[in-house]
Model the fold of this input.
Amino acid sequence: MSKIPGDLRYTKSHEWVREAGADLVVGITDHAQDLMGDMVFVELPKPGTRLGAGKECAVVESVKAASDVYAPVAGEVIAVNEALGDAPETLNADPYGEGWLFKLRPSDPASVRALLDASAYEALLASEG
Done:
């Protein structure tokens, strides 16, 4: 079973969100990286980009497939994890730590509460079986 940290919020499309003050750190879940396999390329949004909730904003590519990453909430990209350009495998090794994708300043900070908590995400994974 994939690791599901209890202090994060999740999307049905397998992104995670960590609150960092007024900003959010966004990545893909352990489940997502496990399904994809060895990561070989990451395309991140540019800082300053405004994202709509649920809109495609990044691409992660593995030896198996390329997959879109979706914005968990609306907001502005304020930073990206440049290190992933040289080391996309960090997504596999540490998806909830060094493998973060980008930081987002949410348009509506309360929108994070609408995302799944760890138990709801675990139930989603169980239902996908």
Remarks:
- Residues 118-128 form the longest helix (11 residues).
- Helices lie at 30-36, 90-93, 118-128.
